[in-house]
Amino acid sequence: MWASFADQELYLQPSPVGAALTGATPFIKELVEEKEALFKRALGRLEVHFEEQNGQGRRKWLVREDEWSLADLSVAGGLYWAFKFWVDKEFRKDFPRLMEWWERLMQEEVVGKAYRAPLVMCETRPVVGNEEGGGGKLSRNEQLGFYGARIMFNLCRIMPHNGREMFLSCWHQSHTRLLC
Questions:
Q1: Cβ proximity of 148 and 109 under 8 Å
Q2: In this structure, are residues 43 and 92 in contact, taking their beta carbons and an 8 Å threshold?
Q3: Which pLDDT band holds residue 8 (cuts at 50, 70, 90)?
């Protein structure tokens, strides 16, 4: 369920925002606003999930209470590029439980290493195009990182693997190749 949520709600829904930001597609104000609203709704779902009580207090992880799982990694992968490039500090402040979860997950040694924690998150939202249809201002390397790493992440996630280290190693290696 969470892998599908990550792919559909956290990656595909806001991809027109990322595409306009990179200049890969023209800026279409209505489409960008609609997709951004859907993305914000998805973040709201996560926020509510982390606010729910589970007998031990608020939820710590998406599925299990004692440790993180593939669900947490899937959702983190879906959020990574949005947090890095366009979900700014002002946008994130509406989701404190989600951000607590993110920080907790990045503090896990093997996860933090794979995601190169701490992630330098977007502080001020970039201009995502203009009324004349112009695109964003990311460099070609940033554009390749934005799209290429997500493709590699999906390929690694669907490969059979024996435990977290192999999964994270695959993700980390693809991430490093594309961004270095």
A1: no
A2: no
A3: confident
What is the pTM assigned to this prediction? 0.72
Instruction: Quickly list DSSP for 75-119.
Output: HHHHHHHHHHHT--HHHHTT-HHHHHHHHHHHHSHHHHHHTTSSP
Coil, helix or strand for 58? Answer: strand
User: Torsion-angle region of residue 40: left (phi > 0), alpha (psi -120 to 50) or beta?
Assistant: alpha
Q: In this predicted model, what pLDDT tens digit does every residue of 134-170 receive, in sequence order?
A: 445 555 445 444 444 444 444 344 434 444 444 444 4
Residue 150, classed as helix, strand or coil, is helix
State the Cα–Cα distance between residues 54 and 168, nearest whole angstrom.
28
Domains and CATH numbers, the chain: 2-137 (1.20.1050.10)
In angstroms, the CA 89 to CA 13 distance is: 20
Contact 18, 126 (CB under 8 A): no
